[in-house]
Amino acid sequence: MDGNSPLRPQDFPALKNDTFLRAARGEETEYTPVWCMRQAGRYLPEFRETRAAQDFFATCRSPKMCCELTLQPLRRFPLDAAIIFSDILVVPQALGMEVVMVPGKGPTFPEPLKEVEDLLKLRQKVDVSEELGYVFQAITLTRHSLEGKVPLIGFSGAPWTLMSYMIEGGGSNTMAKAKRWLYRHPEASHRLLQLLRDVIVEYLVGQVAAGAQALQLFESHAGHLGPEQFREFALPYIRAIAKHVKNKLQAEALPPVPMIVFAKDAHYALEELAQAGYEVIGLDWTIQPQAARERTGHRVTLQGNLDPCALYAPKEKIGELVKRMLEGFGTQRYIANLGHGLYPDMSPEHVGAFVEAVHTHSRHLRTPD
Ligand code: 1CP
């Protein structure tokens, strides 16, 4: 194998557009970088075609397919970052749980955790390279295939969000089963959260070793916790993940990468999140840009937060909403995004209008005539 093998995490092509990374690190940018959560997704006809008739998790296990799906939105839109196509639920699979994609229902665990004793069924020591090596290979292949166009973001679910899926067995409106554990079995809950934390740390470090240039931690179910439970069952793990990932990257002589935390609906904890060791705080659309800025100071870069449903609006309206959002966040220490992922019925054309509006208005705001 020569040094440029697409499956070797070395000799990557030089990065041509580092706007996203500079904004993440708090450096000045000449325009506002933009990417979209779920930019590789079912709203793209080419995504539906590639995914057709294939099992979702089989797709996740194919580095070639993950690479192709990651690149698809970049062929259409001048996005400033790519995010590796995968899913947060590959981590519970690595712990030994079965997760299947049920058409029309979503990801489902046939045997969710019911009793505290069920924790013993989980692998207590996970060989992350063995269980999740396919994600690392997908990252390496994609980083080579990107040809340095934009940086590649790696990601993981955060411990509480993964715990909630492992107990609920799938999506849930109330999270009642998972929250029941927090109230009735706090010690066992902490044991599970610690197990997840340790696997996530190794998983994220492995992603950087494979070629990821930034990392995002998804605490998508933060809003189901109130401030007290967030402080007890989510925040300490979010903090520990940033600290341990950074320490390990340094110890293993890997490049330091910016880390993003997206704790959906956790604006009650914004001040604490701003001090949790992340360079970037991802925001959902329920908080006003100015308020988020005031509450986080200038310690962190903010990312977000247009209501994804705003993309149903006519294109001119999208432009107006983007302009207002950019004015609210200001020109620096900011990465534009939606406040959550794109939905399958959204129009690619409107996604394009969103991306273009960010680039146009953000340049205009810097040099008003
Ligand atoms: O068949 C399909 O294509 C299913 C749709 C789909 C897609 C496109 C799922 C199932 N996962 C994904 C990819 C995915 N998931 C990415 C790819 C990269 C990109 O953003 O372009 C990412 C980052 C995720 C992360 C993810 N998966 C999250 C965190 C983000 C969020 O939405 O809050 C969560 C909660 C999941 C679980 C999941 N996977 C899939 C679905 C439908 C769900 C939600 C299930 C539920 O709660 O009901």
From TrEMBL:
Domain of life: Eukaryota
Pathway: Porphyrin-containing compound metabolism; protoporphyrin-IX biosynthesis; coproporphyrinogen-III from 5-aminolevulinate: step 4/4
Gene from which this protein is expressed: UROD
EC top class, as a word: lyase
Gene Ontology molecular functions: uroporphyrinogen decarboxylase activity
Subunit structure: Homodimer.
Family, as annotated: Belongs to the uroporphyrinogen decarboxylase family.
Free-text function comment from the UniProt entry: Catalyzes the sequential decarboxylation of the four acetate side chains of uroporphyrinogen to form coproporphyrinogen and participates in the fifth step in the heme biosynthetic pathway. Isomer I or isomer III of uroporphyrinogen may serve as substrate, but only coproporphyrinogen III can ultimately be converted to heme. In vitro also decarboxylates pentacarboxylate porphyrinogen I.
The protein's Enzyme Commission number: 4.1.1.37
Alphabetical keyword list: Cytoplasm, Decarboxylase, Heme biosynthesis, Lyase, Porphyrin biosynthesis
GO cellular component entries: cytosol; nucleoplasm
Reactions this protein catalyses: uroporphyrinogen I + 4 H(+) = coproporphyrinogen I + 4 CO2; uroporphyrinogen III + 4 H(+) = coproporphyrinogen III + 4 CO2
Pfam families assigned: URO-D (PF01208)
Compartments, as annotated in UniProt: Cytoplasm, Cytosol
Name of protein: Uroporphyrinogen decarboxylase
Lineage of the organism: Eukaryota, Metazoa, Chordata, Craniata, Vertebrata
CDD domains, sorted: URO-D (cd00717)
GO biological process terms held by the UniProt record: heme A biosynthetic process; heme B biosynthetic process; porphyrin-containing compound catabolic process; protoporphyrinogen IX biosynthetic process
Domain Uroporphyrinogen decarboxylase (URO-D) stretches: 33-42, 153-169
Naturally occurring in which organism (per UniProt): Terrapene triunguis (Three-toed box turtle)
InterPro entries: UROD/MetE-like_sf, Uroporphyrinogen_deCO2ase_HemE, Uroporphyrinogen_deCOase
